[in-house]
Amino acid sequence: MADGSIGLWTVPLAVLGGAIRVSTPFLFVSLGECITERSGRINLGLEGTLVMGAMSAYGISYLSGSPWLGVLAAGLTGALFGALHAGICSLPRVNDIAVGIALMLFGTGLAFYLGKPLIEPTAARLPAIDFGWWSDIPQLRAALRINVLFLIGVALAPLLFWAFRTTRWGLLIRTAGESADAARAMGHSVLLIRLRATMAGGFLAGIGGSFLSLFYPGSWNEGLSSGQGITAVALVIFARWDPMLCLWASLAFGGAAALGPALQSVGVTSGYHLFNAAPYILTLLIMIITCSPKRTLSGAPAELSITR
Amino acid sequence: MRADPPIGVEAIAMTMRFGDFTALDNVELKVRPGSFHALLGENGAGKSTLVKCIMGYYHPTEGAILIGGRERAVHNPKDAHALGLGMVYQHFTLVPAMTVAENLVLARDHVPAVVDWTKERDELAFFLSRMPFQVPLNAKVADISAGERQKCEILKQLYLKRRFLILDEPTSVLTPGEADEVLGMLKAMVQAGDLTILMITHKFREVMAFADEVTILRRGKLAGRGPVTELTPDDMARMMIGAEQLTVQPARTGEAGTIRLELDSICARDDAGEIAVSDLSLAVRAGEIVGIAGVSGNGQRQLVEVLAGQREADSGAIRVSGEAYHAEREEMRRHKMSLLPEEPLKNACVGGMSVADNIALREFDRAPFARSSWWLSRTAFRDNAKQKIARYKIKTRTPETPIAALSGGNVQRAVLARELGHDVEVLVAANPCFGLDFAAVAQIHAEIMAARNRGAAVLLVSEDLDELLELSDRLVVMFHGRLVYETRASDADLTEIGRHMAGH
């Protein structure tokens, strides 16, 4: 299998391919969470939404034969979960973080329950575009087989960046997240803005889940998500709530997650589990470097329950 | 150029009840079109409730609102906006993380789905060119001064073509110079027939200088009204306070002694990591009140937090009676150090704990409150609290009531009882009277003066120049984290102080 002629180049190539493949769910969940958090709420339930999205995408794709219907179903399931989170948080004296944790457990539990019959059958998978057709090197071709969802995600980041500055919805979301009082004084319903932002966030997280079950790894089982949902939430924090930085951070995480398998493929097996932990070590390192007890996070929406 | 004349607003027989509590009792307010009207009253007199009823935030229990001479139903702020009513709030409603231009465009009733920033900026620049004051359009609101923010708030209302403006304590964050500038410009617009203004305030000086008419509320009732020319500040004060007896402030006696509190080149940062206090040195002597004047946000809060032990200084040293001081409990006790921080409920109390517990917070694990420093005696807590509650006139149902349930004035009285109820050698007070009524203010001022006369070194940080001039022996001005001016309070010049507060 391994083409000896490219030798150690296998590692950066595999990391590149991994960055693209593994980063897609990170990207969707973090962009979704970015929208939600900019409106002033944290939805920790996106891990559950991701798994629910993966399950419903797989189920619908299997039943209808169309993976794109599956993606849509995943998005709608996610939006529904977002509405549930926002709805519960609209009640007085409800903490968004506690609700998020409850929904995280509820989402994964429900997905495993409903998804039991889906472990056996094979659903139609999402197609990939072959950007490596010009190359003879199989590793390169493998790395450049890129899923359309990844491309959509990459386009979504600058679109959101632009939307936050130049559209009415972008400005309203930021207002609700930076000063609920200001939004109310202008006669806007903060709860409604946050409901829509949380639903949009859930929609994207659901789509992130559909990538897991319909492309990579591309099957439905209970070990499908290894905490991507929750990691992506953390990712938003050190991307400083900036959609473009979310994109770069997702790619960095995807690359780090691919490091372990890549090293293994060239025969570096010692410390395999250590390399697999690379994304988490990266999280810790970035957190330690960027945080200080003497000041608050810059760029954090002022209404978030962690900054208030 | 302008088509719409200013409008008048009347509130007739307004009554507003929140459960058992009557916030407004049959109040009448008549603001003539094209006039500058002042609404005067103490905290809790019902001023805010009245304007919130007019703006549609509250629905009055009884009463009617006439706008432009016709009875109107105002169900929510949007209705009020549509009728040409606008309000500038005491707490800013600008979004700090956004630019001035973004804030202005966002405030419109109809924000386009996609904003064409080039076009909007041109239109805003044109709008500003016709306005009496300017603001930097592309600056983030967080980066501009409080004075500029207040101007932005007012400009926002004018940009939205509001013809009746309600201003809630608009000058509380401004220097006297800025206040006169802003109010003078508004007065000119009123006289030109562009606007009607209703200003909530408690400053007689501003009422006398700018208002045409005044309405005075006391405890939810109409206490007086009339043209300003027919009233003196004394008349208005009597209407505001009623027959209540105020604590008499003791006379200033005794001379300053040795240096008690010494700050040596203190540097500290704010929460965002920016330098807030820079190279600040100051000495306060026994039997002396040193006042720190300054517009809010010039590092006063961070300085007090360093003294209180809530914030670590980057560098510099604090000495109390010649010994190094690190804001540790043992040191505070040894040096008889007392603190009256701003927002006492947040900075000096545990809201959910009882009044008795809060009064005992400093000494709770020592005799007589505790035996062998761990066995607490509830009786001692209660007896101490009863004694202090009587002496400091704290209005609370029982000593066991959670302190958060008390009014602002009574929370501050409880803190006063704890901090000044024993010998004091050093007292640090920050905006101790902010938002309190006359009776509480008189009592707190009297206590601070009495502490000084007993030989305490007092550092008084305040945004209220009148308070500083009344209490201080010596006055310093803080600007951008530095002390930029010092004067004896007895020969202080208000204009000079205002100039330094604004950084000129």
Mean pLDDT of chain A: 88
Query: What kind of sheet is the major sheet of chain B?
Result: 6 strands, mixed
Oligomer: heterodimer
Would you report the number of β strands of chain A? Answer: 2
Low-confidence stretches of chain A: none
- N-end to C-end Cα span of chain B: 37 Å
Name the chain pair with the biggest interface and residue counts per chain: A-B, 23 and 30 residues
Distance between the termini of chain A: 54 Å
Low-confidence stretches of chain B: none
The number of helical elements of chain A comes to 13
Strand order of the largest sheet of chain B: 6-7-8-3-9-10
Strand content of chain B: 25-35%
- Largest sheet: spatial strand order of chain A: 1-2
User: Structural class per helix/strand content of chain A?
Assistant: mainly alpha
Describe the global form of chain B: globular
Spatial shape of chain A: globular
Short recap of the structure:
The complex is a heterodimer of chains A (308) and B (504). Chain A is 69% helix and 2% strand.
Q: What secondary-structure arrangement, pairings included, does this model have?
A:
The complex is a heterodimer of chains A (308) and B (504).
Chain A: H1 10-38, H2 46-64, H3 67-90, H4 96-115, E1 128-130, H5 138-143, E2 145-147, H6 148-166, H7 168-178, H8 180-185, H9 190-214, H10 228-238, H11 243-265, H12 272-276, H13 278-290
Antiparallel strand pairs in A: 1-2
Helix pairs in contact in A: 1-6, 1-7, 1-9, 1-10, 1-11, 2-3, 2-4, 2-9, 2-10, 3-4, 3-9, 6-7, 6-11, 10-11, 10-13
Chain B: E1 9-18, E2 21-31, E3 36-41, H1 47-54, E4 62-67, E5 70-72, H2 77-82, E6 85-88, H3 100-106, H4 117-129, H5 146-159, E7 164-168, H6 176-191, E8 196-201, H7 204-210, E9 213-218, E10 221-227, H8 233-241, E11 259-269, E12 275-285, E13 288-293, H9 300-308, E14 315-320, E15 323-324, H10 329-334, E16 337-340, H11 344-347, H12 355-359, E17 370-371, E18 375-376, H13 378-391, H14 408-420, E19 426-430, H15 438-453, E20 457-461, H16 465-471, E21 474-479, E22 482-488, H17 494-501
Parallel strand pairs in B: 3-8, 3-9, 6-7, 7-8, 13-20, 13-21, 16-19, 19-20
Antiparallel strand pairs in B: 1-2, 1-4, 4-5, 9-10, 11-12, 11-14, 14-15, 17-18, 21-22
Helix pairs in contact in B: 14-15
